[in-house]
Amino acid sequence: MTAARARVVHLVVALVATLALVLQTALVISGASVLDETEVPGLATRLVRLVSYFTIQSNVLVAVTAWQLARDPGRDGRWWRPVRLAALVGITVTGLVHFVLLRPLLDLEGASQAADTLLHLVVPVLALGAWAVAGPRPRTAWRTAAEAVLWPLAWLGYTVAVGVATGWYPYPFLDHREAGVGGVVAVSAGILVLFVVLFAAVIAVDRRLRPVPDADR
């Protein structure tokens, strides 16, 4: 794929991810009960909780990296690689965990359903598809994965600490009052294994597929 076409592919991802984030943020600011079915808290609390969701953080990473790739589809760099890998694997985990653990619990409609679909289905599919066809590749190694996994580990530590201190958890499977301590540990370990498997898959594919975009720009 040429660099010019790669720019278009990444631009589409950037626009859709940004639209999804703007729509979700607007719903939270308006007080719509989208992310939490309990009593709607104050605006500041709603915004802090919004950015505490792994879904939001993974979509932000996708949007930021996609915008940069739309400008330079061959982008590379020492810290760029783990950030890009974290975005790819993070958004994949977002889609898979939502589909398996969270989607059966939701009953959304209208703008709330649109935001949910964009964040958890459309953006993950587009992000992975864009990487498959437009890269940039090769960019990954196990060292890159070891650095990329620091973000989800930090998020998990922050989430548990905030939950213990305030009683609020972004996802029910991390709430020890509902799932039990053993259940939380089991789910967390399972998701960590999922991360490792996905890192391995991306590394394997990254090494086997031909480099993109084409050197000729």
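[next item in queue]
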Amino acid sequence: MSAGSVTVSTDRHIGTVTFFHPQSNSLPSSLLSELAAAIQSAGHDSDTRVLVLRSAGDRAFCAGASFDELASINSFEAGKEFFSGFARVINAMRTCPKLILGRIHHKAVGGGVGLAASTDYCFATRQASVKLSELAVGIGPFVVGPAVERKVGTGGMGQLAIDASSWHSAEWALARGRYQQVFEDEAAMDQHLHTLATTLAASSPEAMAALKRALWQGTDHWEHLLYERAEISGRLVLSDFTRNAIASFKASRG
């Protein structure tokens, strides 16, 4: 559960935060803590003017919560703490004074959808379909829900959350403001991402910080809301339904 990494690099005022986990970039609690800390640190780095959030590898952008860790949770406190990890990352992105560009190269599931939704401007490829699978395992996308709903609206959020076994295409996400631009392949996406990042790196840090605050106006209550939502998931993950669903998923994965 401790495998994986988070790295931060800066080049010409463009900071890049990259996370990786060998299981389709899933997120155990240790990686969530590192990711939140990296975003907070990069956000206060005076040499960084804009951030890019991405994952490594050529498969999923993010498979969401680590099923290995979910299966090991045996108390409400442990469950709440695990899901609070997603709350910390989202709040770190929300309060970061730098604009964050998302690079979504492939599929995003569950918490990965929440991470992408918490960026300020999101690039994706046509392979970057999305799925909120939490209800299918008896949990529900409670912590990431506010971030997703902020982008796709209540109707779109309901569609994703209720139809928890279906993938929704990158074009679906683009039409609802979930993504801002979608490209045929990673090369085209990276070219346009670099152009925008370079432009922002030459822009006024004060103006961008003010714009960031304006874009996130009305979300201050998330500092408490997301942890209240973590409590809901922390209780549900202990249910027999969820334990059996997670065990079945792990068995099918081999």
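[queue empty]
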